[in-house]
């Protein structure tokens, strides 16, 4: 099937990223973060994870990206009957990149409600990382479980935040969209703090 | 073969009777100055010539004065002529012609009189004649009100017959064979010995012959094209990207422009700073126009970027800034002092005995938003103004252009273009006037002005809002009375006001879709109240019947349900007009009304008459876990005669999609004086996955020829609302319905 | 900047932020690709970049990476593409302004999936807006085109 080739091409595309925001990965000293502080860091992480800029594309096996947040009113699936498919890049239907075009050189302001773009092929997060509508405890347990988080420890999660330009976009969405809370660096710092503090979840 | 040939003014001047060895039937009449006010004189001139057929030694050109905004009338106008003229389908050019009083629209008279379309009384017909005369004297050439076919049906066939008989006379004169022995087929005169003379070869001879008129028209049973599937003349171009819309045309030396005008429509520009805009690449000039700023550049995108970089100081809107105040204005207009007209008062609805149902309804502002944004190419020179754009009102357009440019309308040359939709927006002149202002600043250089989509939404002149206050009365399981009051601003006054024309009488469009439905209620009162002018509004496909038709049919449905009657049976029982009753019975039969449905399914029926077309529709919906899915639609309409069955089906299905889609999710609302909906993301209407199966039946029981561009639209909202009620028990009294339910 | 459109190389001197759409329309003069919304809501500007359907209003020319095919490049009035042929047979167009984009979206889908189910058609073709409401005919024409392509 031809779409599998495109899928392969788009996976390679994830390696590409433009010189974007520089993130420092400086984990706090081992033992310096109490469980309480780590849980506080987690609460901030969850504010980010549950923010529409992030959660709209962290959907489950429906493969339906969501439209929610201040500029959308009631949450609803992405308009135009968009289905990203099991490929999570829309290869079976309309590819995400049909509208969410690759954008690296271009710098100009984008119109409100135009399709978000980065120097990567736009895609849904992996199906295991289903965040949309999930509670803090649910997201927390998913994110610390190597079987559900792409076999990452907290340093790898922080590094992923450094490299994935779609995640960078969440803090710089432009076009009248509300950015994710805090800053990318603060978010990375919270992930590191949560990690050093033992990746606790409220149900522990 | 080009689909549309460009017949310039020059050609017409040369060709008043014979052009380059050819003949132009009736071009002389088309060139006559409209100074003679006597109807009799004009009729005589018109009887002598017809301005729709032009033949030279190269080709046959048919003039199709009704603009084509997608409804396919270019093809159907050509077919009417070709049918009588025996042309080979497609072996001719078609032109939109030039603005001329000769192309006055008889159909407009039908809608301009205060008689129900189903009223064939002598009084009604007399009034139609009088208003028709006025329309003619005022040279109202235009496309709208679903009038293209009513206007063209007889006169274009007569034009074809006249051309055919004149060509036969020319052949007879040339060959000595009596006319009675001549036949015509596929663009030729056939002699008894089988030899052929092409029309084009007879053109020069025909030019010397007085056109032969009063030829009887063929019986429909003899038709070769009409009533049968025809390939639309524009279909290949529209399937290959080769159709040139106004937005696509190019003129030598042309530059690109756009404008940004106060988004508070009609508000002033108090100041602006274009420093940043002028520094952008590709930008040639940024300058003020009426209430805004224009940018001229080497590319439309540069121009759009430029006006976006301008800092504006906008003045306030000349209407209430917030949407709530618009509704309040309507609420406050249900008083004696605002009564525009009491259209019906049959029996006495105030005293009739029975149970009452009372309800209030709202129909919102809605944008036309045709996909081709407003645009025009204009070139201003010392000689006058030349303009290329697609428009529904050619003569008014030349007058408006002339007024802006400070010249005479005769100095304006207008080339009408295929339109990428209109739905009424291309009845407006604001963008035309702006394009002329831009070109005046760039004198000598043709400039293509194109709206950004955001500009188009901000200056859409949406459908008027309306509000209904209604009481239905039922007794013994039957509807026994209906009292419908509708308040809305006058769309005709708003539109006319921008043309400097007043509206002398009541505005039929406040009440359209409510007063004119030919039900035989014993007690029926229909009062229209005119709210003050609010946001500027314009005719939106089917105009008043969208709001008032929704209000009327929904209170009727509510009353029928309260009475415990069957929605279809009760409508049929109440109906007092045979073609309308047949339309209702037909959708009942098509949909197997009364059949088994799943518990989460429901069906609604509605009937609304607009533009003389009885229209009945059944909608079936499924309540899919809280999401409404529209499954199927059955629609029956009586247009008198279906001229092109394929295009008819397409237009009706499109009308259903248009009506349902906007009823589902579209409205324009104002805040801070500006429309909050700036692009299609917030005004989406229907998309393909939401489209139901749509079954169409064209009926031919009514005596008059009717158009079908608009009538499928108004039944959509009430039939959908009635179906949702049937499926869920939830009665929705305000569009768009997605304020109350979710759609799949 | 260089780009290849319908097999022909073009050189344009424009702001790299300029959307491909406006390079095609106002610089190269290929007007079959339409401007409708500018924000990927209507699909009228759909072209192919290396065979994939792309909204040309969303691709900055500076970021274009691949060969462009427009509606003019897949067929013409004399030699219709299977999708165009089906569009003519079903007389899909009303105003026709959206149809270039509809046809390009359909052609791209059928290239990858010549036997699309109704659900796939509904998913793929719902990003293209048709204000005239020709959707029933688009559905039918896509199926006819798919059959033509499978038989070819």
Automatic annotation (TrEMBL), chain A:
<dbReference type="InterPro" id="IPR036280">
    <property type="entry name" value="Multihaem_cyt_sf"/>
</dbReference>
<feature type="signal peptide">
    <location>
        <begin position="1"/>
        <end position="18"/>
    </location>
</feature>
<keyword id="KW-0732">Signal</keyword>
<protein>
    <recommendedName>
        <fullName>Cytochrome c domain-containing protein</fullName>
    </recommendedName>
</protein>
From TrEMBL, chain B:
<keyword id="KW-0472">Membrane</keyword>
<dbReference type="InterPro" id="IPR000674">
    <property type="entry name" value="Ald_Oxase/Xan_DH_a/b"/>
</dbReference>
<dbReference type="Pfam" id="PF20256">
    <property type="entry name" value="MoCoBD_2"/>
</dbReference>
<dbReference type="InterPro" id="IPR008274">
    <property type="entry name" value="AldOxase/xan_DH_MoCoBD1"/>
</dbReference>
<dbReference type="Pfam" id="PF02738">
    <property type="entry name" value="MoCoBD_1"/>
</dbReference>
<keyword id="KW-0812">Transmembrane</keyword>
<dbReference type="GO" id="GO:0016491">
    <property type="term" value="F:oxidoreductase activity"/>
</dbReference>
<feature type="transmembrane region" description="Helical">
    <location>
        <begin position="12"/>
        <end position="30"/>
    </location>
</feature>
<protein>
    <submittedName>
        <fullName>Isoquinoline 1-oxidoreductase, beta subunit</fullName>
    </submittedName>
</protein>
<keyword id="KW-1133">Transmembrane helix</keyword>
<dbReference type="InterPro" id="IPR037165">
    <property type="entry name" value="AldOxase/xan_DH_Mopterin-bd_sf"/>
</dbReference>
<dbReference type="InterPro" id="IPR046867">
    <property type="entry name" value="AldOxase/xan_DH_MoCoBD2"/>
</dbReference>
<feature type="domain" description="Aldehyde oxidase/xanthine dehydrogenase a/b hammerhead">
    <location>
        <begin position="240"/>
        <end position="318"/>
    </location>
</feature>
<dbReference type="InterPro" id="IPR012368">
    <property type="entry name" value="OxRdtase_Mopterin-bd_su_IorB"/>
</dbReference>
<dbReference type="InterPro" id="IPR052516">
    <property type="entry name" value="N-heterocyclic_Hydroxylase"/>
</dbReference>
Automatic annotation (TrEMBL), chain C:
<dbReference type="InterPro" id="IPR036010">
    <property type="entry name" value="2Fe-2S_ferredoxin-like_sf"/>
</dbReference>
<dbReference type="InterPro" id="IPR002888">
    <property type="entry name" value="2Fe-2S-bd"/>
</dbReference>
<keyword id="KW-0560">Oxidoreductase</keyword>
<dbReference type="InterPro" id="IPR036884">
    <property type="entry name" value="2Fe-2S-bd_dom_sf"/>
</dbReference>
<keyword id="KW-0479">Metal-binding</keyword>
<keyword id="KW-0408">Iron</keyword>
<keyword id="KW-0001">2Fe-2S</keyword>
<dbReference type="InterPro" id="IPR001041">
    <property type="entry name" value="2Fe-2S_ferredoxin-type"/>
</dbReference>
<protein>
    <submittedName>
        <fullName>Isoquinoline 1-oxidoreductase, alpha subunit</fullName>
    </submittedName>
</protein>
<dbReference type="InterPro" id="IPR006058">
    <property type="entry name" value="2Fe2S_fd_BS"/>
</dbReference>
<dbReference type="GO" id="GO:0051537">
    <property type="term" value="F:2 iron, 2 sulfur cluster binding"/>
</dbReference>
<keyword id="KW-0411">Iron-sulfur</keyword>
<dbReference type="GO" id="GO:0016491">
    <property type="term" value="F:oxidoreductase activity"/>
</dbReference>
<dbReference type="InterPro" id="IPR051452">
    <property type="entry name" value="Diverse_Oxidoreductases"/>
</dbReference>
<dbReference type="Pfam" id="PF00111">
    <property type="entry name" value="Fer2"/>
</dbReference>
